[in-house]
Specification:
By secondary structure, this protein is of the alpha/beta class. It has 9 helices and 6 strands.
Amino acid sequence: MWQQLKQFFESDTQILEKWQDEPWKSLPFLAIDLELTSLDLQESKILSIGWVVATACQIDLSSCFYKVISTKSSLNQSPVIHGLVEEDIQQGEKVSKALKTLLTLADSHIWVFHNTSLDMQVLTKTYQKLGINLPPIMTIDTLQIALYLLRKQHSVLPPNAATLTACRQRYNLPLAPAHNALDDAMATLELLHALLFQLDPKGKGLLKEFSGVPGLKAFNSDSA
């Protein structure tokens, strides 16, 4: 499954038909972030999840969602990064409840990540363990768009140039708290708007006009 997912995320840009003729400024974006026990995708578990919605370039603060997720898996060294400790995790919500809530937003929103491949692989694996098949989902990866724009300026990329913090700094976005799932989702959503205006300064483009830009993927779990 993982090799098939890897090939999928390395494939050409794909845009679901329902979104192709929509001006990107009017699109409903859902930025999602996960905090994980590990970056080893074979064993990684979700420790927290956060998301937030923007429509017509307006971030809807009432849509903010954040949950710590309970797990019996080892936290390894992850508390050093995100600050979640055993006591937090023990009081967390079941992953099934949080992901069933997220599933209600699959058809109506474009999902945004800073590293789509990582987060979608973890989400897909978790949904499969819950016996749930994801519907077709349109995803946008701010990391891949940022790299695309950087490669237009540099033959050799600066070290750590694609981190969320570094990307935000290039667009003069304010410093944001890091390693909290909701804060990172909010930071990703702000970065997305900066990147899209970099691609389309007048803000009048249709999503299909970005078909040559890496990071736009129509994800279908059947392909996994």
